[in-house]
Amino acid sequence: MNHKNFKNECQSEIEIQSGDREFASLSQNWITKAQSLKYSYHFEWLGRPIIQYPQDILAMQELIWSIQPDLIIETGIAHGGSLIFSASILELNAICGGCQDAEVLGIDIDIREHNRKAIESHPLFKRISMIQGSSIAPEIIEQVKAKAAGKQRILVCLDSNHTHEHVLAELEAYAPLTSIGSYCVVFDTVVEDLPDEMFGDRPWGVGNNPKTAVREYLKNHSEFELDKAIQNKLLITVAPDGYLKRIN
Ligand SMILES: C[S@@+](CC[C@H](N)C(=O)[O-])C[C@H]1O[C@@H](n2cnc3c(N)ncnc32)[C@H](O)[C@@H]1O
Predict the structure, then answer these.
(1) pLDDT band at residue 85 using 50, 70 and 90 as cut-offs
(2) Ligand 1 atom 27 nearest Cα
(3) Three-state secondary structure along 153-192?
């Protein structure tokens, strides 16, 4: 079977999968259990801890390959795993004939010294730059916009402070930088679907999280649509209703 027919067959299977209520319920139960065990903290990408589910990492690889971004903007660096991941796929894109000088920009309010050193000494650091500061501070937003100027295909990933107010402010600042056909990926929308008591003393929880921010943002931004096909494929994702495609 050729690739096109294979993809069509997969699409039909994913549609059937997305209507399977038992599978949806099993997946949600799995996510709830995984969250209680801090499952998403236990992976590394090329030597750096990456706080993501493997399923979302694979989805991001598919996006980075198909979009071929020349800039990826990420809020929330932590140990640097997602930055190294993005840099590694951009490197592979380049090896395969894509953009040669594609880069990833990370923003974090607190880049710990040991993390900074490890990221800066990584072989893929050549594709990475970092800004320390709050992602919603006007002077940080200006620096990001300056970096984005002149870029052709920008992909945005939001994964910092998960309160409604903060994510909405990040969406207002950074989603407009997303190129048409590319994505603004909002992580941890899953908070809305988990028991509120799981978040203890965190400032976010049910009713106040990235998913509620996405809902509010989309009310006034018809240039974005939710790409449900990605979450229907993954089922296990921290970003349900978080893969926003820029359509115009
Ligand atoms: C979930 S971690 C990021 C994980 C990372 N993207 C990964 O996949 O490995 C969240 C990060 O957001 C950062 N953060 C919290 N508030 C922030 C803010 N106002 N601006 C920028 N970064 C912030 C924290 O310091 C933390 O490192």
Answers:
(1) very high
(2) 78
(3) CEEEEECCCCCHHHHHHHHHHHHHHCCCCCEEEECCHHHH
